[in-house]
Amino acid sequence: MKNINIWEISDRINIKLNEEFYKKIKTLVYKKYSTKRKAYNIIKDQIGVSFKTFYNILKEGYCNENFFVPLKIWFNLCQIVGINKMELQKNIIAYKTSNGPNYISNPILPIKITPLFDMIIAHNIADGTVINPLKNRLPYFGYRQFDLFFRESYIKKLEAIFGKLNFSNNYYLTSTRPYCPPVLASLFFKRYNLNVKSFLSKSARIPPEILNKNKEHLLAVLIAFIIDEGNIDSTLIVIKLKNINLARELYEICKKLGYNSKFNSFNEYGSLYILRGGMKLFFEDYKKIVKKYQEMNLGKIESKIEQGLKIYNRPIYKSPGNREIILNLLKNEDLTVNQISQRLIMTRQGVRFHIKNLENQGSIFRKNLQGKKNIVYAIGGRRCLSA
Predict the structure, then answer these.
(1) In this structure, what DSSP letter does residue 138 have?
(2) Helix/strand/coil for 63
(3) How far apart are CA 83 and CA 86, in angstroms?
(4) What domain range includes position 297?
(5) Separation between Cα atoms, residue 203 and residue 221, nearest integer Å
(6) 293 with 323, same domain?
(7) 146 inside domain
């Protein structure tokens, strides 16, 4: 597993140090150089700050203030007093970009490139945007997600990789676009040689290095796309993208993972279909990996997959008289296709077939709408909605 040290992320990182370590650096500076001015003269060309700023950084009580100091200052100071940079990294208690408001506390350092790391990239390819601000600030990710569970899950994934994210407020509880701070986005760009254009919906591709990784990394990418772009259609998982090449890459991932699947394209769209056998194997693999990485939880999608897998395990699936069973259900209450499918553990396609025939016979009618597009059916021969 590849590890990334903090000095490899970006050259625009500011940090806060553990107080005891801060005091250790000060003590060694005075012990070796007697004055701050002598130490400053040795490193001034590397740190790029005035002596007044340098003097204040080493002033008593500075560590207790809410100030973040450029990493390069501490890096060069440690170098001239004989402190190993790995020891420096162990004593960082928070970091952020030089002019960013949000910071990471209790950081996980060095950063490990786990399947969650690649899953974040997949989320931002599937349903993200890159914000490229003005005033010399670094670009960062905005992840569009309307489901609160998955918004919180996105933040939890980031925290499992990097440490505690500190925003001015927990805006993502109400906003539909949680953000990945610039200091973290910088690492994602740098790690796979990405740029702003790498995340455009019509041209985005999965980084080749990720496509050549092991099963857990590939599975993490596929789970991300199922969360953001997937649709569970009874015994199928369908991912349809306005990006044929990207959809084909997901199909290649399915083949590598051994999932029975199909791919087709029409006009600008590419569609991946994970078939019944593939969905079953995928769900088995998912249940294993989610024990290791709880942040990969599929939420409500998990129950939809379970429902789809039950269909072929029930005798009713191939029993005669399903049309009559549906008719009997509707005698007791008005229902949508989805509701009937759930009650009978039957595919929605199968239910629609019988509903169409019952409607043509005049046995049922379209009563009203549930939500914007779910038709509610009822017993009778009159139609209240146009066909």
Answers:
(1) P
(2) helix
(3) 8
(4) 209-311
(5) 17
(6) no
(7) no
Residue 271 β-bridge partners: 240, 264
- The helix/strand/coil state of 199 is helix
Give the model confidence (pLDDT) of 250-304 as tens digits. Answer: 999 999 999 999 999 999 999 999 998 999 999 999 999 999 999 999 999 999 8
Tokens 């092991």: give the residue.
214
At 387, is the pLDDT very low, low, confident or very high (cuts 50, 70, 90)?
Answer: very low
Q: Is residue 133 part of a domain?
A: no
Q: Has this prediction a pTM greater than 0.85?
A: no
Length of the chain: 387
Decide if 122 is inside a domain.
Answer: no
What is the C-alpha to C-alpha distance for residues 62 and 17, in angstroms, rounded to an integer?
Answer: 11
- Do 269 and 319 fall within a single domain? no
- The identity of residue 209, as a single letter, is E
Residue showing tokens 């690649």: 118
Residues 269, 349 share a domain? no
Give the sign of the dihedral formed by CA 115, CA 117, CA 120, CA 125: negative
Residue that is last in its domain, among 311, 327, 353: 311
C-alpha span between 145 and 97 (Å, rounded):
25
Backbone angles phi and psi of 102, in degrees to 5:
-95, 145
* DSSP track, 39-52: HHHHHHHHH---HH
Omega prior to 139 cis, within 30 of 0:
no
Residue 120: partners with Cβ closer than 8 Å, 6 or more residues away: 154, 157, 158, 161, 180, 188
Helix (H) or strand (E) holding 228: helix 215-229
207's tokens: 């980084």
Per the structure, how many domains does the chain have? 3
Q: What is the dihedral of CA 261, 265, 268, 269, to 10 degrees?
A: -30
Q: Lowest-pLDDT range, 10-14, 45-49, 204-208, 265-269?
A: 10-14
Does one domain contain both 99 and 8? yes
Q: Is residue 149 part of a domain?
A: no
